[in-house]
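Deviation from plan, reported transparently: adenosine monophosphate complex.
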Amino acid sequence: MLYSVKMRASRGGRRGVGGRHISGAERIVPEERVDEVAAAMLYRARTHERGKADFMQVRVEAVDPAAIRYCPLLPVYDRAAETAAEGRRAAREELIRAGVSAQAADAGIAALAALPDSMRGAMVLDSETGERLDDQKERGVRCTNMDAADSAGYDQLMAARGLGGDHPREALVLASKVAAAPGAVAELCWSDDPQYVTGYVGSPRYGYGRIPVLKEKGDPVGGRVFFVRPGTDMVAYVRYMQDETVLVEVRP
Ligand code: AMP
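Because the crystal trials were delayed, the predicted structure below was used instead.
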């Protein structure tokens, strides 16, 4: 049996409501790993760079095996960039190569750059017009309920490629689920972690294109944009993102 383990931590709210988000994580693991994974998440919540959490919640829930779907892990490639401006130019090129119109690519980059504070989820934009399609405002659409199918195999492979650690792992697993969504064209992401300036453009066509600099160091605002084909059924899309359990497989 597999279990979903989710953690969220915040500061300054009341019983976790209304505070500033500090940290969140999720894994899907066999029963015998639940304790270890939950303890690691609590440690991470207590020591996060964004500040000291005063509320931490861990939720453990069995996953119905019949409801699990699988998708391939995106292949990783690198784009060079030395400044945030160069990185954003590279992101624009990658988005267009993946099938996003120039207008929509510009709209997505501008929308992320203009965010006054980080969102919890992603903006969903039409890949042709750049129009925002979700009605989630500052919250955005969350992609949840995913993990690597073979955790140990995944860690081994990624460590060998210099992509070990929680941050790359979570981003790559999330990007793989996002790229397998109905209507997916591409994704743009840069982190809200002030010290982590690396971001990526993900797409079902080319994979996960790492871009070493997409924002200035010290900038605490990050976000994601999911670009979808015109006419994508948003109700089905949001259901896939939030409710479907997807395990990401390393396929030869
Ligand atoms: P992170 O890479 O964790 O620093 O996240 C960067 C930004 O991506 C956040 O500020 C959110 O806007 C967005 N984000 C983080 N997690 C998710 C998620 N599970 N689904 C959709 N968007 C997310």
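Residues 118-122, 140, 142-144, 171, 174, 189, 191-193, 222-224 surround adenosine monophosphate (CB under 6 Å). We consider this an acceptable substitute for the interim report.
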